[in-house]
Amino acid sequence: MRSITFARGAALACALLAANIASAQERLNDSDVPPAVAQKQKQEIRHGDPARWYKPQSRLQNLHKEIGAAYDEAKRACAQESKSERSSCLADARSTYRNDMANARNLANAPPPQMGTSSSSETKSGQ
Question: Has the keyword Hydrolase been applied to this entry (predicted)?
Answer without folding.
Answer: no
